[in-house]
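User: Lipid A export ATP-binding/permease protein MsbA. Structure?
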Amino acid sequence: MLNAFKLIWNFSSKRKKEYRNAIIFSFLEGLFLMAKMFAVIIAIYALFGRYPLSNAVIAVLTLAVFYIVGVFIFSYKMQLTSMSAGFGMVGDKRFEFGEILKNAYLGFFDNFSVGRINSVLTTTLSEIETSAPSALIRVVGGVLGTVSLLIGLFFYEWRIALISLLGMAAYLLVVNWQIRVSRRDAPKRSEAQSKLSAAALLFLQGIKVTKAFSFKNGDRRLKDAIQGSCNENIDLSSGSIPSQIAAGVVLSIFETAIIFTSVLGYTEFDIYSVEKCLVLIILSFMAFSSMNQAGSVLSMIGILDSALKETNSLTQMEQIQVASPEQHIASDEIIFEDVSFSYGNNEVLSHIDTAIKAGSFTAIIGPSGSGKTTLCQLIPRFFDVKKGRILIGGADIRHIPTEELMSKISVVFQKVYLFEDTIFNNIRFGKPTATLEEVRTAAKAARCDDFIMALPEGYDTLVQEGGNNLSGGEKQRISIARAILKDAPIIILDETTSALDTENEHEVLAAIEELTENKTVIMIAHRIKTVEKADHIIAIEDGRIVQEGTHEELLHRTGIYADFIHTREKASGWKLAN
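Assistant: Predicted structure:
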């Protein structure tokens, strides 16, 4: 239990002061129970003539007002402060995760599914947001409030206070059992929620395929995930029910013990007066009120413990580190020195040695799976080399500050992703301070201004998630406009025209010419017209550079490049038979 509270406390980070204040308010709220206890004592003593009635009425009313006002003020302050601390704490953590994810290697997203990340950032953090403040504040405040009440009770009647103390200890033992049960089962529930989130995302992203190919059974994975989540929630609840009932039974037993002891003390042992006996009977229902309130929250500790560990696991991802000493880019020349790279045990690039001159156009060709895309992804440090090094302008990219490195590189991906925002903001993503005039200039260069202006809302048109309301060519041109606006000196193009029709390809190639003018360009290419224009061609096969040179040089050599050209020339010469 203490470890769980330590996790919450550490998780709260810079919100510790707010939590500390909320705990103090909770404790002060509990202290006002003393006023209620004094009011009960005075009222009963007055009924038996042991206290002047007129004075008793004034005292009870004063204590009642004192209790009501005090509880209202400190309960309000406690809830407001704890709510602010909870929302602020999780908000801070979400911002932190945003920075962490930005600085993670792409390989992390292969091992840590998007569904799991989504589950942590939404469901798991929402649980922490609402439950952690209550658990920490109610439990600590409840325990302190109960202890203060017991101290007062010890002065009034030590025997009953001792029974209450034993009841408190027994209750905490049962609650600890409850925490162990939920801590055992909560990770299974968390895993089921992650699977549900992943299945829901997969189902929505593939809804077109589901409708077209597997309308009847295409949602099987989602249904299984829903059922799995339901089963784990039921198992968690059913596992904790016995301990919850036991906790209530323990309190009832010790409340009964207080009543029984009070009655015996009056009837058999004559150690209590009738009025004191009545006071003790009433106090038996008050003695455990704060503890019972704290215990209801303690049942969530196991779930919270699992949620916090799941969330903290996200912070353990490997981050891109800038090695010392820092180095800075002096030119746009890119050099690979004996570079090798593996995905796990699968080596995809082996002993790559090549130089890409500043201002040159380099085309990379090779069969599918040869390592072309990986080679390009190593330049902006989407992954780090396993052996060798990559230099840009004489600086090892592992020593270049990330912001400086990324400011020098623009990447136009084969699979374009547009944000669910306006076209204007999607283009301006390349330069957040850009004006509309600058955005339109970039769009005109990318051959997309005309079709954007033809839309009803123009540049204010809202792009649907992933750009689903735009064609492939339109999305590609918008992404090129984004790169033009960024105006980075090094451009990486990943098979940008491979999935386009002839008309869109023509427009995109024209846009690429605007983008790449006076730049250092690395393009994964598959069309003859593109490759022929290259200053430098790299042919990759099985993760190795097998040929390198210009179009004219390689065309007359036997090898992968000549085969590449001849295959495409043959394909372009086909025609339909009459």
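DSSP finds 22 helices and ten strands in the chain. The first helix runs from residue 2 to 11.
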